[in-house]
Amino acid sequence: MALSEQSHQEPVRRAHALRRVESVDPSASVRHVDQLEPAELELLLGLADSDASIPADESPLEAGEVIVFTDYYRVERV
User: Is residue 1, in this structure, part of any structural domain at all?
Assistant: First the structure.
C-alpha cells in the first residue's frame, strides 16, 4: 500500500468492554467495586448491563484490570 493511501485511513480507535471471567491471574490488578470512583462505578454498571463498549480514551478504567462485583469482570481492549 502506498504511503498516500495509508494517510487517508481512519485512525484505529480502541475501546474498552467488560468480560466476565471465572478465574483471575495472581499478578492481575484487582479492585473491588467499593474502591471505584463514582464515574468508574457508573461506567462499570452500564457496561455490565449490556454488551456495549466505550472508547478507551473516554474510559477511566484500565485495560487488563479486574473488577470484583457480583462476578469477576476484566476490562478488555476491543
Answer: no
